[in-house]
Write a structure and sequence with these properties.
The structure is a single chain. This protein is mainly α and 54 residues long. The protein is built from three helices and no strands.
């Protein structure tokens, strides 16, 4: 926090909504893409193998 009384200026925090929306959409897309391949692999494995592993 910049004290305007001491320094004579301050920093305004500004986050454009477009940038925030783009970041959230990108994060969701990357997370879905990263989980797709392992989910497909796990879906093809026999259930018995998964239960035996646990």
């Amino acid at each position: 926090m910049i004290n305007k009384q001491s320094f004579g200026w301050t920093i305004q925090f500004m986050l454009p909504m477009g940038v925030l929306v783009e970041a959230v959409v990108l994060a969701v897309a990357v997370a879905l893409l990263a989980g797709y391949v392992p989910a497909r692999w796990a879906g093809k494995q026999p259930i018995v193998e998964g239960l035996r592993y646990e």
